[in-house]
Amino acid sequence: MTAPPTTTIQQQQHRTKKTKTGSRGSRGHGWYTLYRSGRGGRHLQGQYYNRDVSKLHSLNDEVFDMGSEFAYLDISVGAAADNHEDGDDLVKKESNIGRVVIQLATAALPVTTQNFKQLCLANPPSSLSTTSNENVVENEEIGYLHTKAHLIDTTIGIAFGDVLHNNGISGRCHPSIVTTNTSSPLQPYSFADESKVISHSSPGIVTMLSPSVHSNDSRFLIQTVEDAPHLDGRYVAFGRVVGVSDDNHGSGGGMDFLMKHVIKGVFTKRGRPTADVKIVGCGVLSKEDVVELMKEDDSDLGSRSAA
Questions:
Q1: CA dist 81 → 86, 98, 135, 157 (Å)
Q2: Does the reported pTM lie above 0.85?
Q3: Who has greater pLDDT, 38 or 300?
């Protein structure tokens, strides 16, 4: 009695079964030994298993040591955003207003940092439209003042900088930055990418949020996680939050304020904050001012340690 002829489907299943099996497993010879020794490769250890974070920290320090300047953002959370008035004593009394000082790598990234500084120094109108408004686009006095955080992602960071509609769908660089050589035809109010020499290897890194290549505008992200390797090579990082605070601005500032009052203190719905996280003051600091703030931080730390 002869066996029935095999069908085409049975032949395909047989060939597939032969290719999937092997003498030492589908992952190759000695894969378990490599896995236990930490040499398992990307398919076992993750895409960034051999990332040297400490070396990246030192490289970032070298970039900032080439030459840097400082800017600041006064950020309010909740009701303080509606009651804030520049120069009023309320700034000193509100506990949910903090100052974030940012060190800018001006020597390595002159165009990106200049755009950030100019937007910090601008004096825009007190209210922004949430719909398309050509008058706002043509207004050169646009800046970060009165803008809000449009995205809070606990796995990445806090997104700011929509100077047009305040909802994250648009942005515009400062008019002094736009040139015919750098502006993208698809993004007329943008500028080209500079060197991606700063790695997203530590919390506090400030990076541009560009919708595509060579389309940087005004939107930026403050990283709040320890390491974000998936952002390297994609976005241009240009600054970092330094560990100085100002007691004249509510509960201090820096990353401690962002983590306590924004990341952990603001409820979000699909990344959108339900409370206003608003920039109520911004500008540029001199190195002398930053040195004084660092001295005050050191003295406060010493007094607390002595107590």
A1: 11, 11, 25, 20
A2: no
A3: 38
pLDDT category of residue 115 using cuts at 50, 70 and 90 = very high
> Which stretches does DSSP call E strand in 20-89?
69-77
Model pLDDT, residue 70: 95
Do the Cβ atoms of 124 and 146 come closer than 8 Å? yes
User: Are the C-beta atoms of 227 and 202 separated by less than 8 Å?
Assistant: yes
Q: Which of 115, 114, 139, 118 is nearest to 129 (CA)?
A: 139
CA dihedral 278, 86, 115, 65 (to 10 degrees): -100
SS3 146: coil
- Residue-wise pLDDT tens digits, 256-303: 999 999 999 999 999 999 999 999 999 999 888 887 777 666 555 444
Q: How far apart are CA 244 and CA 248, in angstroms?
A: 12
Residue 64 contacts by C-beta under 8 Å, 6 or more apart in sequence? Answer: 103, 105, 240
SS3 128: coil
The CA–CA distances, whole Å, from 260 to 77, 97, 224 equal 11, 12, 11
Helix (H) / strand (E) element for 279: namely strand 277-285
Taking the C-alpha atoms of 105, 111, 112 and 116 in order, what is their torsion angle to the nearest 10 degrees? 90
Residue 2 pLDDT: 62
Closest-CA residue to 163 (of 128, 214, 117, 215): 128
Helix (H, G, I), strand (E, B) or coil at 93: helix
